[in-house]
């Protein structure tokens, strides 16, 4: 059984329809990259999966259970966590308080151990845990955002452009972290502007354009596909 | 090839970095220090006027002490106002009605309880704090119920914030009418005719024991709010929801539940403020309505959405308000709050502790 499976998904805001009949699948342990030009509907697809945009048609099943149209805080309980592209941290709270909020659904006694795991992954956060996140750098904020999403020990992590706005060195660091997280058995679905790097480490990739599926296949196959290269990877 | 465009892009930032004299002056005027200075100047002017009018230093000190107490009362109301604003982003004009309701609930509960001997030097017996402790959660539940019936519906329809504000104004009149129906238009006293002589403290400050009780209670409740927001899970969730409601949901926080708690806590504190106000003067159906302006002034002064700022603003307004009564009729009190609010809005609209650039 696939971990996440979306079929015939149609969604949008107000009168405009952004996604048309989109399908997507993530299996256990995979990294799936979602690429495509700006305005292709990648972020909308993430939001639709997570209940922030209510799907109009189609189904989204997580471990076989229908979650389309559920509220975000109910979807979180199923073992799905999401890191939005922007505004993905509580800037008025400290790093540690952000992690506490990431583990809001946990019993309070489980928090210290989970926080330790995040600090082991991002040692920098341990040093700065009592600092307000609003005063942190972009890279540190991204660590807080991903760390918060890991607090519930999800089965699938949704990352929307984890490398956006980071310096090249930090991009490599974040990607290395993502691969490391994936190696612990967590499946990852990520939207990435850095399409080549994302496909290089992805098990499979989907190309989305104008709200529709264009191509999908193993990450390396998409990288080798001249058509994909010309149209979506900048030649 | 890419270098020239790079330079072009950098030039405008370079211009803004080297601030022109005019901009530097504006930045200075908008700084927190300048606002504090402006407030201090207003206070100093008031003190000088009082001196000229022949008001003694001891009387001024006593007035300042009462001002701190009044600030405590205003602060209790402002915290609810600012918490609701932080989480729901609309100014709740019916908050004054919750203040009044709290005062009257305490009044009625006292009548039901057996009357104890006055706890001298205080003017009231044990039944007063007990009634207050019952009235606080009751008003909290009323506030939450209003949210369920009115504001939650608007939230579900994604209504414009102006509609929320208008609905809260309607609720203000509705609740006030209910208070008129239930308790009538007459003034009430918790303990009519009971003496509460002033005590003399060091520096010849004269305050009544009741006023000290009010101040102590306000302090305890504010420490409670601090502990709640900083130490408890629901408090942190309230701050998180105020910061970013969508992310709060994504992190698994049931924001509707957080909103309910925000109303309960805000309503309970309003009830405490109203009861304290009633104890320091008398109960009138309009009492909360008249506190609304100083409460909003305190909230704006401290930076909307910031509970600690609201408290600081309330203290400043309370003291200014009382010191003015040394030479002006107390009926002009609201004007003082209004003047301070306008100064803040002109100089630094984000308030003392607000985020810059707001």
> Number of DSSP strands of chain A?
10
The total of beta strands of chain B comes to 2
Largest interface comes to: A-B, 25 and 18 residues
What low-confidence regions of chain A span 5 or more consecutive residues with pLDDT below 50?
none
Taken from the alpha-carbon principal axes, the silhouette of chain A is globular
Q: What would you call the structural class of chain A?
A: alpha/beta
Shape of chain B: globular
Give average pLDDT of chain B, whole number.
86
Distance between the termini of chain A: 36 Å
The CATH first-level class of the largest domain in chain A comes to Alpha Beta
Fraction of residues in H or I helices of chain A? 25-40%
CATH architectural name of the largest domain in chain A: 3-Layer(aba) Sandwich
What's the story with the biggest beta sheet of chain B? 2 strands, antiparallel
Detailed description of the structure:
The complex is a heterodimer of chains A (235) and B (358). Chain A has 235 residues and is an alpha/beta fold. Chain A has two domains: 1-79 and 155-168 and 187-229, Rossmann fold (3-Layer(aba) Sandwich); 87-153, no CATH class. Helices cover 37% and strands 26% of the residues of chain A. In chain A, helix 3 (95-102) packs parallel to helix 6 (138-150). Chain A is globular. Chain B has a domain at 71-286. Chain B has helices spanning 3-17, 21-29, 32-52, 57-88, 95-112, 127-156, 161-183, 209-231, 233-243, 245-250, 255-280, 287-302, 307-324, 333-347, and strands at residues 198-201, 205-208. Chain B has a two-stranded antiparallel ribbon. In chain B, helix 4 (57-88) runs antiparallel to helix 13, helix 9 crosses helix 11 (255-280) and helix 12 (287-302) crosses helix 13. The longest helix of chain B has 32 residues, at 57-88. Residues 1-16 of chain B have low confidence and may be disordered. Chain A binds chain B through residues 50, 52, 71-73, 76-77, 82, 84, 87-93, 97, 100-102, 104-105, 108, 148, 152, and chain B through 233, 236-237, 239-240, 242-244, 246-255.
